[in-house]
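#help-structures
NK: newbie question, is this the right format to request a structure? protein is Striatin
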Amino acid sequence: MSEDGQSCYSGSLDGSVRCWKMPDLNVDPYDNYEHGTPTSVAIVTTDPNQVVVSFDNGETLLYDLNTEQSIAALETQTKDGHDCSVRLWMLDNRTCVQEITAHRKKHDEAIHDVAFHPSQPFIASAGADALAKIFV
């Protein structure tokens, strides 16, 4: 953090250092945001210039970091934002190729985090049901 509290610095394994402007704590950055509040962000490993963002309203969008624009919506058949499933997507044609019912809903929450092993076919998820699961 900078001395004045206006900037935050982060370092990365690629050797880069970034400076982030701290938001005004008196302003809600998600007021009138068209997609709701982001609940999850994942970098697309095959294209690090793209991220997948999930929102509390159930939408999941693919973004291009260079243009800072949404590329596509990843369509699901959920009625709300938390159906307790982990989904694997083929981003080339934007289709869901596998859906894993992973956790039970608790207090209107379901899955808190998903992680992928970088070289092995393992997926881990952590849920509001206090369970951590590993899928092979």
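mod (FA): yep, format's fine, and the tokens are attached above. The first strand starts at residue 7 and ends at 11.
NK: thank you!
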